[in-house]
Amino acid sequence: MTNFFCSQKQLDYSDLMKKRTVEAVVLSDIHLGTYGCHAKELNEYLKSIQPKMVILNGDIIDVWQFKKRYWPKSHMKIIKHIMRWITKGTKVYYITGNHDEMLRKFTGFKLGSFEIVDKLLLDVGGKKAWCFHGDIFDVTMQHSKWLAKLGAVGYDSLILINRAVNLILTSFKKEPISMSKKIKNSVKSAVKFINDFEKTATDIAINNNYDYVICGHIHQPEIKKIITDKGSVLYLNSGDWVENLTALEYNNKEWSMYEYQKDTSLKKIKNSEDDTIEKIPETKELFENLLLEFQAIQSNK
Fold first, then answer.
1. pLDDT single digits (tens) 94-151
2. Pairwise CA distance, residues 143 & 135, whole Å
3. φ/ψ bin of 20: left (φ > 0), alpha (ψ from -120 to 50), beta (otherwise)
4. SS3 (DSSP) at 62
5. What CATH number corresponds to the domain at position 272?
6. The pTM is what?
7. Could you list the residue range(s) of the whole structural domain that residue 54 is in?
């Protein structure tokens, strides 16, 4: 089990005084490469913080729906920002998910402070944290992957329709709505799936005497203490950057949920940092190789 906070390299923050220092940040379900991804908003958030450790908990790049014709600059900026952290010595773990499952062939790969893993067990402030994406609990993923992929396309289409509806609503000075949230909260099977997911994750964590269980996958941000007759655990889900725009942050031995929609400080951040990637050839080459892998997968479909 890695004790990150005892071994973290000293970084130079002299040029980053306007940023919030965060001991650890967990991001999941960004879905870069899809129309539903809120990359511009995420980029604002990334520029506002200076984390000591970053956990990318799956579905960062959506390989299922990856298309060469749709990879906007805002999506590339996210990759560049993460690479900048890596070159500065920030520890970055990439935990594979179902939408970026092709990266599982690279499990164990390390480059400087960057590492690709399938799951993670960390010592966080003297407590055991178990981190994984969560698709292992998804019966649809295990037995009918084609159905899951079809659902992903439908979900992305719903997000696009939702954005169009919200543009109309805001033009009439109405509050925007989230169709996907309404569906999740109103359909009994969706509510049951979320409850079953949380129960399965927490039961396993309690049985293994973990203090924290950290997931993604279901796009449902959550921090809550689960107590059973066998013990207790803090369940955490980082949500997503498609509908909720949330992340988990760890500071001073406490976890909190970052919510972009409630953050009023981001307007003060000036996006003036150098976004060049050419100065870091190793990470540039790695990303280009991954893009070639994605394109090969798409051409074989």
1. 999 888 888 889 999 999 999 999 999 999 999 999 999 998 876 444 434 433 443 4
2. 12
3. beta
4. coil
5. 3.60.21.10
6. 0.73
7. 4-299
